[in-house]
Amino acid sequence: MKRESVIVALATALVGGLLAGSLAMAQAKPEDTELWKPAPAEVSPPKEVAGPPSDAVVLFDGDDLDQWVSTKDKSPAGWPVANGVVTVDKARGNVETRRVFGDYQLHLEWRIPAAITGSGQARGNSGVFLASTGPGDQGYELQIVDSHDNPTYVNGQAASVYKQHPPLVNASRAPGEWQTYDVIWRAPVFGADGALMSPATVTALHNGVLVQDNAVLAGETVYIGRPAYRPHGPAPIKLQAHGDRSAPISFRNIWVRELPPRP
Questions:
Q1: Choosing a second label site near 23 at 20 to 30 A (CA), which of 4, 95, 229, 248?
Q2: Could you give the CA distance from residue 122 to residue 240 in angstroms, rounded to a whole number?
Q3: Which among 102, 126, 142 has a CA at the least distance from the CA of 256?
């Protein structure tokens, strides 16, 4: 075929394609790309800022610790509750939820005492374990500590995934002020043989500021050494009674929304 014929053929094809596309566009309708089913479930938003939505499990609303047990022996949680606030009792140890959870959205509020003393990790230390996998401090910890004008190692400051991921920024408020964590937890997935199929991930906002952006965990939290995974299923959420000598911290307004597993 001569060069001129090739050019004519290509031009004809191009024009034909443009005409066909224009015709298809002219025949298309907005409803061709509208999805009506399945409709998302209806959830009533909270009546006040940071309150629980209608499908949330309220873990602490200021009245009692009925939703919590002692991590050590599963007896009723013995931390003191007063004026809508629960305060850590270091002598009684960690507490965890009676219920177990897989993937979820979590909201909790915490406060470092205004007259806090100490420095570094010994200043208002606590933590929320997004999945408690055993006694003591076993599990996956999002750190709580006073990080307002209190230097420490960055993967151990407030809003760090302890010893794994420093926070993207330090959004800490001063001692005496209430602080918020809003967390999306995606639990690790294990195969029937115990092999890790999908690692855990954490997205977290500290006082409304993004501090963990789909952070991928290398395993459970460990104080010394490298993190590693052990197979487990749905697990409780745990609050830490850290053994440092500073005054105990307090919590309020804790709720969780269970999420469907990742596809």
A1: 4
A2: 14
A3: 102
- The whole-angstrom separation of Cα 13 and Cα 7 is 10
- What topology is assigned to 57-258 in CATH? Jelly Rolls (2.60.120)
Task: Kindly report the pTM of this predicted structure.
Answer: 0.88
Residue 151 near residue 120 (C-beta atoms within 8 A): yes
Structure tokens at 11: 């031009």
Q: What is the DSSP string of 204-231?
A: EEETTEEEEEEEEP-SS--SSS------
Instruction: Give percent of the chain above pLDDT 70.
Output: 90
First-residue to last-residue Cα distance in the chain: 53
Cβ atoms of residues 130 and 183 within 8 Å: yes
Q: Do 173 and 215 meet the contact criterion of CB atoms below 8 Å apart?
A: no
What tens digit of pLDDT does each residue of 128-147 get? 999 999 999 999 999 999 99
